[in-house]
Amino acid sequence: MKSTFCIPEKSVISIILFSIFLVGCNEGGSNTQSQPGYSNPAFPNSETPPENSYLEISPERVVDPSDAGPITLTFKFETEVDRAEFWLVGNLRISLDQIGKYTWKQDLTHSQIFQNYNAGDTFVFVGYCETFVGSSLRQRLNLHLPVRSDLMPDVDYTILSSDMQISDHVLNLRHDELLLGGSTISFVWSAIEDSVQEAIGIYDYYALVGQVNAIANRTGGSLLCFPNTTFFDLANKGAVHELGHGLGLAFSNHPLIANYGHWRLGNAAHGIMGWADPSAGGQGLNFPYWLETNNVEGTTKLWLTEQATEFNDLELYKMGLLTEDDVAPILQFSDQEAAVNWMINPYSLESCGINCQVIDIPSEYITIDDIITLDGPTLPAAGTNITVGTIVLSRGGLLNSDEMAFYDYMSARGEGTEPVQVMEGFSVYEGKPFYTATRGLMTLSTRVR
Ligand SMILES: [Zn+2]
After folding, report:
1. Closest CA to 40 of 214, 161, 236
2. Taking the model in full, what pTM does it have?
3. Does some domain include residue 285?
C-alpha cells in the first residue's frame, strides 16, 4: 500500500482530491523562486483565472455547528468549466451557480454541512465538488471544511492596527495583495516579513496560512506554508515532518540510507520523514512496513505496521538528540530500485503469517558507524526548544472571534505533550505533536505574545 506524505499538486483543496494519507511537503518551498513581478489575480471579482483554484467559505472561513444559517461555498477555478456540482454525503447532488467566468457558488444548509460531523472534530467531510467540461468529469475535489468545535475556547486577542491583531498563538495579518500558494509564496513572505518580525520577533520557523483554501501544496523549510487551511494543524504529522526538514533531515551520503530529504527504503523510512520515489518528484511518502531478516537468501520479511508517528532513532541522532550508541543497526533493502518498483507496483508475495510477507529483495544492516564514516558525526543539538510563529493571512478585514479561536487552537496544539486525534483529509489518526514525536527530547513553543 502506498501512501503519500505530500499532497499531490492539483489534487488537493480544503479538500484534497484523492490523497488519503499525506502529511505534507514540497521540499524547499520557502526558497522557491517566483517569477519576478508575478501577481496572482485570483480575486472573485476578476475575470482572470487564479494560479491555483481555491475555495472560500462565508460568512466565516471556519464553519460553526452552533450557527444555524446557510454557508456559502465559492469556488474560483483555474480554468473554465461547463458545470460544477456538489455531490454531498447522503448522495444529494446540487448544482453550483456560475457568477463569473471562473467563479461558481452555492449555499448549503446547516444540516447539509454537518450531517457527517462528530462533536469535537476539527474538520467535517461534506462531500465532493465536481467540475465538468462537456459531459466529462474534469476534477473531483474533496470538501473537508474546518470547524470551530466545542473544544476550541474563545481566545483573547488584541487589535494592533487596522491590518493586524494578535492572540497567544496567532498573528493575524490582513494582506489583500497576493493570495498565498504556488509561485506567490516568496512574494507574500517578502511583503510581510518585516511587519511580522516587528510584531512578534524572530522565530526559528514561521507557519503561514493563506487567505483562502487554495489547491496548492503545503511547503516546508524555515517557512511552513499552508495555502489551504485543511492541513493546518501544528499537531499533525505533516507539520512535524516539515519541522524535521527544517532541522536538517533527512540527508546522508550512504547510498542505502538517504534520498534527498527523505530516507531510502527500509527501516530508516519507518519514521517521520518516510521515503521518496525520485520519479514522483521526491515527495515524502509513508512507509508502513518493518523489515526483518529472513533465512532464505535474497529475501526479506516485510511486516505491515501502523504508520510511524515518532521520529526514529536515526532521525533523532541526526537531530543531535540521541548519541550514536543509541542507534541500533538499521535493516535496509540492498536493491533500492527493486524495492521502489515493488512499492509503486506491488505484486503478491508469499505469506509468513498475519501481516507478514516474504519479499524477494535482499536487505542488509547499516550501522551508525557506517553512516558516520560517510557523513561525519552529528553534534549534539545546540538547544532543545524550537519556536514556531503562526501567521494567518486574511483579506478584506481581520479574522473574527470564531476564526481566531480555530487558528489559535490549531497552532497551540503544536505545543502538545500528549497524543491527540488529528484529521488530515480522510486520514484520521492519533497524532503525536512535536514534543511527543521526539520522545520528549525537544520542546516546541508556538506562543507569539
Ligand atoms: Zn518531506
Report:
1. 214
2. 0.88
3. yes
Side chain identity at residue 342, one-letter code: W
Q: Give the span between the Cα atoms of 181 and 430, in whole angstroms.
A: 28
pLDDT digits 0-9 by tens, 187-220: 899 999 999 999 999 999 999 999 999 988 788 8
357 falls within a domain: yes
Say how many Å lie between the CA of residue 192 and the centre of ligand 1.
Answer: 25
Is 225:185 a contact under the CB 8 Å cutoff?
yes
Cβ contacts of 79 within 8 Å, gap of 6 or more: 49, 102, 138
3-class SS of residue 263 = strand
Per the structure, the count of domains in the chain is: 1
Q: Report the C-alpha dihedral over residues 361, 332, 419, 250, rounded to 10 degrees.
A: -130
Sign of CA dihedral 297, 259, 24, 206: positive
- Whole-number Å distance, alpha carbon 281 to ligand 1 midpoint, is 11
SS3 content of the chain, % helix, strand, coil (to 5): 20, 30, 50
Where in the sequence is the domain holding 268, given as residue range(s)? 258-318+330-366
Block residue for cell numbers 506554508:
225
Answer yes or no: is 221 within a domain: no
Distance from Cα 28 to the centre of ligand 1, integer Å: 9
